[in-house]
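fwd from M.: "can u put these together and see what the complex looks like"

so here's what she sent:
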Amino acid sequence: MRPCRETERRDLGLEPAIAAQKLTKKFGIFVAVDHLSFEIPKGVVFGILGPNGAGKTTFLRMLSTVLRPTEGTARVLGYDVIREPIKVREMIGVLPEDTGLYDRLTPDETLMFYGRLHGIEKAKLLARSESLISFLGLEEKRDVKVGNLSKGMKQKVALMRAIMHEPEALFLDEPTSGLDVMSAREIRALIIDWAKRGGTVLLSTHNLWEAQQLCNLVAIMNRGRIVSTGTVEELGTVTHEKTLEDVFVHLVRGEVER
Amino acid sequence: MKRTRSFAIWASLPRSKLADIVWKELIDALRDRRTMVAIMLFPMVLVPLSLNIPFFLMSPKRNPPTLGLLQLDPASGNFTSMLRAIGDIQVVDISSGQNVTELVSKNVFDLVLVIPENFTQLILAGGQGSLMAVYDATNTKSTTGVSIVELVRSRYSDMIVKERLERINVNLSIIEPVDLRLSSIREVTGVQVFAGMMVPYFIGIVSVLAGASFATDTTAGEKERRTLEAFLTMPVSRVRIVIGKFLGVLILSIISVLFDLLGVAIGTSVLTSLFGEMAMSPGVSQLNISPWNLLVIAVFALIVSMTGDAILMAVCIFAKSFKEAQQYSSVLMTAFTLPMIAVMFFPPSVLENLIVAPIYGPIVVMRNAVFNISAPNQLLICLATSLFYLAILLVLAIRLFSSERVLFRV
């Protein structure tokens, strides 16, 4: 494992948005996340890659305070995930692997519900809903129950829910999984736009091409541990591989053989 | 710009995360067809029907039994006139030579009454005339017909006894030397006795039945539909989420109870008036429940709902799937039904002790309130113990909801 070097980050003028110390999650005797220590700078798209069961989702759930770490701790935008979970939740937007939308609410109502839970004031909430619905081209579907929307539209609504309170960090778990080309493209454009405006994005994905397109930094995760981290170019140099897919196979296979 | 009415209401709600959670639960539940079945269809349709169908089927005024009368004694006109005059039975004369057993077994008549040739002659001679009724013991209308014939026979017999005794100057008391005068310590109408059994049952069972559907959906349903994880990433404490969900379930239970009361009122008033006096006429107007006791019934119905909903919430949070939650709910529903039936049969000494039992206590209080016999100390004891149980159940639900093992177990 090669953690991000503090000197490199300072050179880039980046401050850590997320910092973990020996972050561990056990389910009985199964260790899902194993003593992770790392830092993620602000304003980057950080990709977490790994095979199924690597611990990516558990890792995101701990950072989003849905799961409590068994050992170690993590700070998100300066707040401790164990001691200040509500503060952490105020600062982040989360898109879980399943959209987690209520089928019987409309997109408008969905935004109203989550926006109010985030304490957004009424006028601002209505204006923000309006601009997001317009930006994602959902005007015609705003009063249709979410259960009747296509998968791509549902994903857009879920993304609106994640960003409507303008969080400083976005945690996205497989945001384009199962989407058609056009929908996936729109979601990716939104992520790039978000990062350009200074937001930090933590992206868990299986899609290596997507990671290569979107991420400033990537971490390869396997069996609950980060095998390696850095820019795609850095990982290529370390592993002497040309593509991210080759890097991924090299690192994961190496870990398995070890 | 077109927007849903619920959206407009939501936008106008005061800023309260608890109110937002409750409103979301209500919208989510009310747009589910199962909710409409539980909240409206059962109380508004099934309750009046279940109250009235038995009476409808058994009511001789609405659906009189048919009696084939084989009158072999032409002098028995007094008796047959009395039989025809009672009006609750349709009398059809039949001729001799027919197989009366067959007439009943083939459902030509519900019963056949045979008046033998020497019937009047034997009576006039001071003897005993014998009637014969052929009926089907498995047919309710047939047995109802037998009761009517028996009533007419008894009246006719009493009339003859009276005439015979008067003829020989003997007082009626010689054959009825002992009399019984009833003096109840409490004044209750027949409707009240009925309501004392049925009101706690219908209010209790409906409030818990409605709660079961919502509690399952909002807890185990959320887990199964995977909507919970996104909810848990919101800046809201889990205590508030559980309380919000509980209040949502409770409001729907209360709505359901109101529909239920309406269903009971329809069942006891409107439909019964159609079915005549053999049904429960004249309905709720004879209940004579004081305003104070009506308030007691309302408050303790709410407590039954709250307790039942809290138990269901805790159990459904524990369930790992919707199906598992439904199975638990079914078992609990059976368990909840027991006290509602039991209060109909337990003697007062047992009921007094049950006042501190969860669910049982409020049901007993409601029963007593129907009879206007609720004692203030009992109300206070029941209220205090019920609120104590409710607090324990809510703490349990919150603890279960805060447990990762429970929330994310698969």
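replying to her w this: Residues 4 and 230 of chain A are 6 Å apart (CA to CA).
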